[in-house]
Specification:
Order of helices and strands: HEEH
Radius of gyration: 14 Å
Distance between the termini: 34 Å
Number of strands: 2
Largest sheet: 2 strands, antiparallel
Strand content: 5-15%
Oligomer: single chain
Helix content: 25-40%
Structural class: mainly alpha
Strand order of the largest sheet: 1-2
Shape: elongated
Length: 61
């Protein structure tokens, strides 16, 4: 879980556009962010295994 200060700082509009930091809206994690689903890998995996993300299926071959 991210610190509250990091979440507040990420929510503010940055002075320059390139300074924006992507954070997971569910847990606040900044690393391993998946842009297509706008969440971190840990939250993505948890929701995908529960079947809450449409179109995502666990691979098996």
């Amino acid at each position: 879980m991210a610190r509250l200060s990091h979440l507040i700082k990420a929510a503010r509009k940055p002075k320059f556009k390139v300074r924006k930091k992507n954070r997971c809206p569910l847990c606040g994690r900044s690393r391993a962010y998946i842009r297509q689903f706008s969440m971190c890998r840990l939250c993505f995996r948890g929701l995908a295994l529960k079947g809450m993300i449409p179109g995502v299926v666990k691979a098996s071959w």
